[in-house]
Design goal:
The chain has 415 residues and is mainly α. It folds into two domains: 1-213, Up-down Bundle (Growth Hormone, Chain: A); 214-400, MFS general substrate transporter like domains (Growth Hormone, Chain: A), CATH 1.20.1250. The chain has 18 helices and no strands. The chain has helices spanning 5-22, 25-36, 40-68, 70-90, 94-123, 128-156, 164-172, 181-199, 216-223, 226-257, 261-289, 292-312, 315-329, 332-341, 348-357, 361-376, 378-382, 384-398. Helix 1 (5-22) runs antiparallel to helix 5 (94-123), helix 2 (25-36) crosses helix 10 and helix 10 runs antiparallel to helix 11 (261-289).
């Protein structure tokens, strides 16, 4: 099968765009609350709509790929995301926002299902591990950059010496809604990506046995297994933790420490994602010298300590500990996934599909935080993350994989 360095680059660019559009909702929450005068519960419907799209679209996207191929599905995905982006840009409103983020979520879910097997074909199976790590780093970089772009736009929006792009955006968005500018930009990015992908020749992708869609009854068999449900809840809790923190961090800092969400709040979210990327790099060596279950236990305990300090400390401590939780959360997802797939003997492709559906945790947990926050305060709402972290911690104790991660064995020198 022919390799395609150009297509590898396009896939990496797609990872960047997915992250750019996915992780902007958290920093925008304070502005959305102000613009549409929403309660915490109502604003939490937005991340709910985005991540529920993943649960709805993941398996159908695989079926679309089987029927029409990777290129067409990627083109459709960017059309859907474009419609979602510009519908909110043209008709700003709460209901439009819900529809918008749901459509963007559908587009991003379609892309996620396409690009992983496509990366294996375009880059070569022997290089897949390297490119997968590189893709995660690029994903983290975009998550770091996204809130900073938002902060730069809104802080320069009324600058009398703003450049041509800002002046144009100023004419397009309603007064007091500078954050809507991002959705004009997202739509334009989708158009550019559509053009690029349309012009690129895609290689024929040969799916491995684990990547092919299995009959629906296999999913039913797996869901009857206790271990499958337990690991489903593990991914549910992880994504819920990640999105619960990134979605509500800026609002918490604004409410309890009176920090500007356009500057301090956006910067905190940016650092959260940046430290998650750094944590992933630093965490990799630990997997070679220590059982992954022990790594999970230690990192989760440190995340719990950070959460306690973030919710009970002063402004400086909160600003330090909230982003630091990204560092300790960095190893949770890959460890849980690896422990899960190594805990059953067959049907790993279908099991992976079930685990990906657990991404709906990113929809449910932020919504619950908002609902609790409306009745008992946002601090109490974010306290829900204690429960999700404790469940993740428990995995390190009860997981019994058939195959454990290979570690470096230190042998004593025999004289």
């Amino acid at each position: 099968m022919s390799r395609s360095p150009v297509l590898v680059f396009i896939i990496m660019l797609t990872f960047f765009v997915i992250s750019l559009l996915t992780n902007i909702i958290g920093p925008l929450i304070p502005d959305i609350i102000h613009s549409f005068r929403l309660s915490l519960t109502l604003v939490a419907i937005l991340p709910f709509a985005f991540f529920i799209a993943y649960g709805i679209m993941s398996i159908p996207s695989g079926m679309l790929i089987e029927a029409y191929g990777e290129k067409k599905v990627m083109l459709w995905a960017f059309v859907v995301a474009f419609i979602g982006s510009w519908s909110l840009a043209i008709w700003p409103g709460y209901v439009t926002a819900i529809v918008s983020v749901f459509l963007i979520g559908c587009g991003m879910a379609m892309l996620q299902v396409v690009i992983n097997p496509l990366l294996r074909s375009a880059g070569g199976a022997e290089h897949y591990a390297f490119f997968s790590v590189l893709a995660q780093l690029i994903f983290g970089l975009a998550s770091f950059v996204s809130p900073l772009v938002y902060a730069w736009i809104v802080t320069h929006f009324h600058d009398s010496h703003a450049d041509a792009m800002i002046r144009l955006l100023r004419q397009l968005v309603p007064s007091g809604m500078s954050w809507i500018s991002l959705y004009w930009m997202f739509g334009l990015i989708c158009v550019l990506m559509w053009i690029i992908i349309f012009m690129i020749r895609f290689p024929r992708v040969e799916h491995t046995a684990e990547e092919k869609i299995e009959p629906l009854h296999i999913y039913g068999q797996l869901l009857k297994q206790r271990i499958v449900i337990l690991f489903f809840l593990g991914i549910f809790c992880y994504v819920g933790t990640e999105q619960g923190l990134s979605s509500w961090m800026s609002q918490y800092l604004a409410v309890y420490h009176h920090l500007d969400p356009h500057v301090s709040g956006a910067t905190a979210v940016s650092r959260f994602w940046g430290l998650m990327t750094v944590g992933g790099l630093i965490g990799l060596p630990f997997m070679k010298i220590w059982d992954s279950r022990k790594v999970l236990i230690v990192f989760t305990l440190l995340a719990l300590i950070c959460l306690i300090l973030a919710l009970n400390g002063n402004t400086r401590i909160s600003l330090f500990c909230f982003p630091l939780m990204g560092f300790f959360a960095s190893i949770m997802y890959p460890v849980i996934i690896s422990l899960a797939l190594n805990s059953i003997q067959e049907h790993h492709g279908s099991f992976a599909g079930i685990l990906m559906t657990a991404i709906i945790g990113g929809a449910v947990v932020p919504l619950l935080i908002g609902a609790i926050g409306d009745h008992a305060g946002l601090k109490t709402g974010i306290g829900l993350v204690y429960i999700t972290l404790l469940y993740i911690l428990s995995i390190g104790f009860w997981a019994k994989p058939l195959i454990t991660n290979k570690t470096i064995q230190w042998k004593k020198k025999i004289s």
